[in-house]
Amino acid sequence: MAGGSREKTRAVIVVACFVAAISGAILLRRLRKRSRSRSRSPKIGGCSIEEKPQEKFKRVLADNSYSPFKHLKRDDKGSPTELHPYEEEITHLLQNPPVLPDFVSDNANAPLDMSGSYTWVDTEPQLKSLAGILSGEKVFAVDTEQHSFRSFLGFTALMQISTVKEDFLIDTIALHDVMDILRPVFADPSICKVFHGADNDVIWLQRDFHIYVVNMFDTAKACEILSKPQKSLAYLLEVYCGVITDKTLQREDWRIRPLSMEMIKYARCDAHYLLYIANCLSSELHSKNTSETSSFSGDKLNFFFEASRRSNAVCMQLYTKETEPSPGTSAATSIFSRTFNQKLDLAKVSELKEMIWKLCAWRDLMARIHDESLRYVLSDQSISALAVKLPKVPQQIYGTMTESPSPIVVSHIDELHNLLKNSNLSIDDLFDNILEMRLDPVGCCPLSAYNYALLSQLSSKRGDMFNFSLSGSEKVAQTGSKRASRELFIKKFSCKSPVYHNCRIYASDGRLLCYCDRKKLEWYLQRDLAKMVENDPPAIVLLFEPKGRPDDEDNDFYIQSKRNICVSCGEEKHYIRYRIIPSCYRMHFPEHLKSHRSHDIVLLCVDCHEKAHKAAERYKRKVAEEFGVPLFVQKIVDSGEEKVIASIGLTNNKNSNDGGKGVSPLHLRTAAMALLRHGSSMPSERRDQLMETVKAYYGGREVSEKDLESALLVGMNPNERRRFGKKKGLPLTLDYKSTTLIKNGFPSNIGNGENNGHNNISYSDNHHNNDSSEACEVGVLESDRRLSLLGHGPHGKLVVEQLLEKYGDEGILQFCQKWREVFVEALQPQFLPGGWNIKHSGKRDFGDYSVYNPTKKV
Ligand code: AMP
Ligand code: MN
Ligand code: ZN
């Protein structure tokens, strides 16, 4: 962006401010309108002038929050995050410096010639082909250009790569999200990367793309070793290549597209000659070796290797976000030292200090929220002037500032005004105010991938007072309705009190047997099988000798105290039980394999719950396919005879008007119920939709009212049907007892399921199964008998029967393991209780008094 045009834009605002005291919001709108009508070319990174190209980035590795930067985690290395991901490779290079490949000989004249064309790389296929070219090179030169004015942390706007044959200019704005395509060539120790003054480039590449340079030759380091009078690139270009450059272009706005001819030339120049220069410096280093080691015989210093080592030491640097004790402190210190005036008395000094600090804190938060540089928001000089003069009205604030006010200052002028006039305002109040102000309905504080973490950190501390506008559809796509649904879901279904009471049970010899809930303790206490030994949290000692000890069985899961948090992400504020083994299967397990329930019921927050649930539903479909046992049911009218057939529901059954896919009992019953109850009053569109679902069950034929009533009963046993009829009070004309379905392909199972246990819940569905009141380690038997209207009909039972028939108990254990794997794969849970194990075995011998013993003696 041409600096002049922005100045003009700003001037317009200032005038507007003085002419009328208009609210910041109106001004901002006006500003946007003005900049829109401004000249449209050149554009900024493909965006119109007031848009910022980084708003289109989807992968933002370094956000504007206060949390530390997360470096690349390599799959092949179990390296902890604090270490450089390529530490091993770089260390090896430091100990065994590589020689610079001999590359100029076959291209002797090329280096000084820049008349050829260059390649502009701005599509993914082009970048992939470049990666291919580079992987075949022994050496290539690199430089990057940054943009830091309209961004808080800055971003790489251009990357220049030159091989001996060709210059490439890579549009790192257009390709921001796929730059990892170049990660392998940069990390390849057999390819030398030539930079000039790489200190910044190395960490910028980490910050934006998780690109780490391994094997580098830095021409500036070579200059150091050779004691050159200067080590700037301009000097080297002039001395070795006879090229004079205008380094002022360095500070151009590198977001502009298309780049001007001048900028293209400058950018190419920065990389094009580097290989040639490196070659010259390398020979000088080698000849310095021979000349100087001959005069100091025995001296092992190898100048070339020293340059190589210093270069690769630069690669070891790690990008970190700057941290300070509290926001704005370091800027405040330096501004204060420049502002401090000897004439001020002590009280005034501390007042001044305080105000500068507050202004800096305000500026810091504003810059982070809006993803702007500090100096774009408010200059140091203005902060100093404002703190000294303490202007009392908005117009005076604008007048006191040394530059034209930025749109941020304009749209937040009330806040700034409040801050300046109210010296009693604490930093905490200030932040609260800022965050409240951010509710500006005009949307002057858009939510983005850059500030999401920052704002959610702050918002989690300050309750839910935010309702900011969303910028960009992708990033944090949480629509209002989805959020409302989520919140409702949390309210309704999350556990109301801690799930794990962490009560303890000890054996009579004092060894800890397990942690459990209060109900389990009471079970033993009521039967005089234990005595209370501690109250808070409660603990009992068993009065009988338990059969086996958990730790004897190599099974320490049960003696871990469990935390009331989401086992996946650690969320503490709400959680819901999640059954890792869906109960549509588990309910059919033999009793002795059901005991290890607490291992396979974990707590999840709603977001993780939904993720896990989706993965489980996916896996159920796979199970259906593998076992040849359908999830969905269908009844087909065939030559006058009704048959229920199996239908493997591999696709979403909602669009199943072809009659070939069938329908899950759950969807069938929900649809039938809605039609029976509200069919006449609902919009015809919705009615047709529900009718399709029911028709899918009846093979696509027209359905009668009686069919609807029959559909309500699909998947229930006679008992359930009776209870269901009473509960719903529906004027059903059917006789529940006599309703039988003719079986075909589903021998004896339709309607036999005790419980069609659709175990898990999803807040984006409209059906929930809330059993948070259920104790998690006792009441196992009762809970499985509960009537449930949710589920997959006979699927679970058939699968379990097959497993038991073919593989016995071992089959069930393997099946459980598989479900745990599905769970772990879907969530990568970070907070599973110690001792939790995919291989957890359900085999355990129960003592006579165990609550799990099916033939309990008590
Ligand atoms: P260079 O290493 O010369 O290609 O510079 C790379 C990037 O660093 C440029 O795109 C600028 O963003 C930034 N930069 C380097 N030196 C300066 C400077 N003196 N003033 C402002 N920005 C600079
Ligand atoms: Mn450059
Ligand atoms: Zn979670």
UniProtKB/TrEMBL annotation:
PROSITE patterns xref list: HRDC
Superkingdom of origin: Eukaryota
SUPFAM superfamilies: HRDC-like (SSF47819), Ribonuclease H-like (SSF53098)
Parts of the chain that traverse the membrane: 12-31
Biological process per Gene Ontology, one example term: nuclear polyadenylation-dependent CUT catabolic process
Keywords of this entry: Membrane, Transmembrane, Transmembrane helix
GO CC entries: nuclear exosome (RNase complex); nucleolus
InterPro entries according to UniProt: 3'-5'_exonuclease_dom (IPR002562), HRDC-like_sf (IPR010997), HRDC_dom (IPR002121), HRDC_dom_sf (IPR044876), RNaseH-like_sf (IPR012337), RNaseH_sf (IPR036397), Rrp6-like (IPR045092), Rrp6p-like_exo (IPR049559)
GO MF term list: 3'-5'-RNA exonuclease activity; nucleotide binding; single-stranded RNA binding
Record-annotated HRDC domain positions: 349-430
CDD domains documented for this protein: Rrp6p_like_exo (cd06147)
Name of protein: HRDC domain-containing protein
Organism per entry: Rhynchospora pubera
